[in-house]
């Protein structure tokens, strides 16, 4: 099939299918000797052949709803700008790269001109080299400076694994430059005895936004010589900085720029992303400075075969008698087993930590029946592991000791996984950006690779596997972040004042909302104004006021009750649903039951067990309108956006059979309610419109509820979020509107920008919602269209046909 309009992240240079473990990879080996990609001397199975093996048999073949073939592409070479040092160019050539691709040379030229630039080209297109060439050249120049330490550079990665992997690559690449380049990782895992060396001697510091926020900026006097010489700031995988996390990082970068200015430097920002829509605007919003974009990918790409896979319906019946599909978790475990047996090196991405553990366990059990040596070559990789566990898994994957890995997005942006042949994506990852990022992890050498998206029993997944154009004919989503969110901005103003007294002139740097917040921070006695500046006067650290990952609160420690051993942690915001009393918790392939969640001590006590079920929390939600900021008439209906207060309480949990997902029972919980002030989009309809649509009072609640569920499921098509970032409430007669109302809100204090994006794209969003419900083959509603795994009311009431009629009537008068 012709493929004329690729999203940015689809331009992948992917590697050969290989049964032989890859034990060495050239650092940044993202370019090749001149000429088009050629087949390896020892031919490997083509990705189409591997897919044919997976789909043998009529039942398997019927599960593939679409196969997309992305054709290979030849690369276009250029020459390095003459201002790149000759010894740096020689070091790059020693790494096997004779000439840069055109986009690498263009990005380096902008960097040398002192212009901030974002490289938004495909996975494996050589973005690392695009920013490393000017960075290494500047560091080598600085090493020859007669006085001082010379130029420095700061590298920011969203994960520790990516920073550690980049250090390895930089050390190898810069080895011929001797002591001119001194890279060092500075994060929470860096031993205390090494930190002083990093501050004094490293000229290329690799860290993450968390450490910059809590460790480097508050201690800036000890980093003064580094900041004074700071020439470049590299922001890798910048598309991950979205929502609340992205908004926090935007303010952290403004604090960094402020301190640099005080020390006399003005660093150039070099950003990289394999997947971004309107990358210049997104990068400028993140950094606060003008950014030039490079989007024309000149690297070669091998053939990519991308299959959409829908698990079959089972004989089981779920809530309200709805048909149940086989779970994506069980389906992926089967596919991973088959691929490992074939010797095809594979990563299976899954959205949840528990899902990663389940896929690993199921695959290991099935592999044991085939060959006793194979289970040890499959593992899980996820956040929450202890640092030494993560490093061991990274080494095993890098060496080829592991053939299969079930991983969360902790690996999506993690270590160099050169040599992988296939990627399984367990459920749509929430955005097209993440989809292409995950698919691009397979292969790195310009040859073929296989990617398979395994659909969950979910409205969005079902819509996508039957509407492939929504994946393959549309660009990736716009990166949504809101640095002016007062819940984000306020603690960073306090942190900035603690770093250096905050002046009137500084406020413009932090955005238009900063001035309005200062009187509130004074009234709360967080800041005190003296003469011309605001000061932080409290004893505690101002940087501790906020968790930039957006979770907030103290992480809950997961402790084995019998031994006191720390197994891992979970965010406080997720603790009520993840580690409530009676919850099943998985860690390193072992299953634990939560005996008690201690909210005061932020600890969950667990004991090892082997229950034949998983658990899913249930909650109830109410909502009130605080302020309507914008209102648009859709005929007699109204589309609104504004501030709301949401009250949520986890009230029970379901026990479900493993693999099938069948509900075994429900148990009550006694947890306190939580209140959230956030942003929402909502729409109302009138009684006349309901009469015209044939919506009677008996079905009104079910129609609204079904429309709410489906619209939450489809919003990720239009904003960089997934359904777990957002929530919803539907009410036949809401006390604030006095009309039937459906709300969709951001699940973060102050909002994350997702609801606003829904408001801006409401017509297209709600049209896709209606079409998804109408196209589902079920009779009365199922998890593929209107049932939600998050529903606090047990998916009751729901009315599928009523939702279609309601949305059709609403959209008929949309402007």
Automatic annotation (TrEMBL):
<dbReference type="InterPro" id="IPR001650">
    <property type="entry name" value="Helicase_C-like"/>
</dbReference>
<dbReference type="Pfam" id="PF09369">
    <property type="entry name" value="MZB"/>
</dbReference>
<dbReference type="Pfam" id="PF00271">
    <property type="entry name" value="Helicase_C"/>
</dbReference>
<feature type="compositionally biased region" description="Pro residues">
    <location>
        <begin position="34"/>
        <end position="46"/>
    </location>
</feature>
<dbReference type="Pfam" id="PF00270">
    <property type="entry name" value="DEAD"/>
</dbReference>
<dbReference type="InterPro" id="IPR027417">
    <property type="entry name" value="P-loop_NTPase"/>
</dbReference>
<dbReference type="InterPro" id="IPR014001">
    <property type="entry name" value="Helicase_ATP-bd"/>
</dbReference>
<dbReference type="InterPro" id="IPR022307">
    <property type="entry name" value="Helicase_put_actinobac"/>
</dbReference>
<keyword id="KW-0067">ATP-binding</keyword>
<dbReference type="GO" id="GO:0004386">
    <property type="term" value="F:helicase activity"/>
</dbReference>
<keyword id="KW-0347">Helicase</keyword>
<keyword id="KW-0378">Hydrolase</keyword>
<protein>
    <submittedName>
        <fullName>DEAD/DEAH box helicase</fullName>
    </submittedName>
</protein>
<dbReference type="Pfam" id="PF22982">
    <property type="entry name" value="WHD_HRQ1"/>
</dbReference>
<feature type="domain" description="Helicase ATP-binding">
    <location>
        <begin position="108"/>
        <end position="294"/>
    </location>
</feature>
<dbReference type="InterPro" id="IPR018973">
    <property type="entry name" value="MZB"/>
</dbReference>
<dbReference type="InterPro" id="IPR055227">
    <property type="entry name" value="HRQ1_WHD"/>
</dbReference>
<dbReference type="InterPro" id="IPR011545">
    <property type="entry name" value="DEAD/DEAH_box_helicase_dom"/>
</dbReference>
<keyword id="KW-0547">Nucleotide-binding</keyword>
<feature type="region of interest" description="Disordered">
    <location>
        <begin position="1"/>
        <end position="61"/>
    </location>
</feature>
<feature type="domain" description="Helicase C-terminal">
    <location>
        <begin position="335"/>
        <end position="487"/>
    </location>
</feature>
């Amino acid at each position: 099939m012709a493929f004329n309009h690729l999203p940015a992240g689809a331009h992948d240079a992917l590697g050969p299918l290989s049964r032989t473990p890859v034990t060495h990879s050239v650092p940044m080996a993202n370019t090749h000797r001149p000429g088009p990609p050629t087949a390896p001397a020892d031919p490997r199975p083509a990705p189409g052949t591997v897919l044919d093996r997976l789909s043998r048999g009529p039942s398997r073949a019927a599960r593939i709803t679409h196969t997309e073939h992305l054709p290979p592409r030849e690369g276009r070479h250029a020459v390095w700008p003459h201002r790149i040092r000759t010894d740096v160019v020689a070091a790059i050539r020693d790494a096997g790269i004779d000439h840069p691709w055109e986009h690498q040379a263009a990005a380096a030229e902008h960097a040398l001109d002192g212009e901030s630039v974002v490289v938004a080209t495909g996975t494996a297109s050589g973005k690392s080299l695009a920013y490393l060439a000017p960075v290494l050249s500047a560091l080598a120049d600085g090493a020859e400076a007669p006085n001082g330490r010379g130029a420095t550079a700061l590298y920011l990665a969203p994960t520790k694994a990516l920073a550690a992997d980049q250090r390895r690559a930089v050390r190898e690449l810069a080895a011929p430059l001797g002591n001119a380049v001194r890279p060092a990782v500075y994060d929470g895992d860096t031993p205390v005895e090494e930190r002083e060396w990093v501050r004094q001697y490293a000229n290329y510091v690799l860290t993450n936004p968390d450490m910059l926020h809590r460790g480097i900026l508050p201690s800036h006097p000890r980093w003064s010589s580094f900041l004074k010489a700071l020439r470049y700031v590299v922001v890798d995988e910048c598309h991950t900085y979205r929502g609340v996390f992205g908004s926090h990082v935007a303010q952290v970068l403004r604090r960094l720029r402020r301190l640099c200015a005080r020390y006399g430097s003005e660093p150039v920002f070099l950003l990289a992303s394999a997947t971004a829509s309107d990358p210049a605007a997104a990068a400028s919003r993140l950094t606060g400075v003008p950014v030039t974009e490079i989007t024309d990918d000149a690297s070669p790409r091998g053939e990519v075969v991308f299959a959409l896979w829908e698990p079959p319906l089972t004989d089981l019946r779920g809530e309200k008698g709805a048909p149940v599909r086989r779970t994506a978790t069980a389906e992926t475990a089967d596919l991973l087993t088959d691929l490992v047996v074939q010797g095809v090196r594979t990563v299976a991405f899954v959205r949840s930590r528990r899902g990663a553990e389940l896929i690993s366990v199921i695959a290991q059990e099935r592999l044991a029946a085939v060959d006793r040596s194979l289970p040890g070559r499959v593992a899980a990789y996820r956040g929450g592991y202890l640092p030494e566990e993560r490093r061991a898994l990274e080494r095993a994957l890098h060496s080829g000791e592991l053939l299969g890995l079930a991983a969360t997005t902790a690996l999506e942006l993690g270590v160099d996984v050169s040599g992988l042949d296939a990627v399984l994506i367990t459920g749509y990852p929430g955005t097209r950006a993440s989809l292409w990022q995950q698919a691009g992890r397979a292969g790195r050498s310009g040859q073929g690779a296989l990617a398979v998206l395994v659909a969950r029993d979910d409205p969005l997944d079902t819509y996508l596997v039957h509407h492939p154009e929504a994946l393959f004919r549309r660009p990736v989503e716009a990166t949504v972040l809101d640095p002016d969110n007062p819940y984000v901005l306020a603690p960073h103003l306090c942190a900035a004042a603690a770093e250096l007294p905050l002046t009137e002139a500084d406020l413009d740097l932090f955005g238009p909302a900063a001035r309005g917040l200062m009187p509130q921070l004074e009234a709360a006695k967080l800041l005190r104004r003296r003469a011309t500046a605001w000061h932080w006067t409290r004893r505690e650290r101002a940087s501790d006021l906020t968790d930039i990952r957006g979770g907030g609160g103290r992480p809950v420690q997961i402790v084995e009750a019998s031994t006191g051993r720390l197994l891992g942690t979970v965010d406080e915001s997720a603790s009520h649903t993840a580690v409530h009393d009676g919850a099943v918790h998985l860690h390193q392939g072992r299953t634990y039951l939560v005996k008690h969640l201690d909210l005061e001590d932020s600890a969950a006590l667990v004991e090892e067990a082997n229950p034949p079920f998983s658990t899913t929390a249930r909650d109830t939600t109410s909502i009130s309108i605080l302020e309507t900021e914008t209102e648009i008439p859709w005929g007699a209906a109204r589309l609104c956006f504004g501030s709301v207060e949401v009250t949520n309480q986890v009230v029970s949990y379901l026990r479900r059979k493993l693999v099938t997902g069948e509900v075994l029972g429900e148990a009550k919980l006694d947890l306190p309610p939580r209140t959230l002030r956030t942003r929402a989009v909502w729409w109302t309809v009138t009684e006349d419109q309901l009469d015209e649509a044939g919506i009677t009072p008996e079905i009104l609640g079910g129609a609204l509820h079904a429309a709410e569920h489906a619209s939450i499921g489809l919003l990720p098509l239009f904003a960089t979020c997934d359904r777990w970032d957002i929530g919803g409430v539907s009410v036949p007669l809401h006390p604030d509107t006095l009309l039937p109302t459906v709300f969709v809100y951001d699940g973060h204090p102050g909002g994350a920008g997702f609801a606003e994006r829904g408001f801006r794209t409401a017509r297209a969003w709600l049209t896709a919602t209606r079409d998804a419900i109408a196209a589902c083959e079920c009779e009365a509603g199922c998890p593929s269209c209107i049932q939600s795994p998050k529903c606090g009311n047990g998916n009751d009431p729901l009315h599928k046909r009523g939702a279609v009629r309601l949305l059709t009537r609403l959209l008929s008068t949309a402007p």
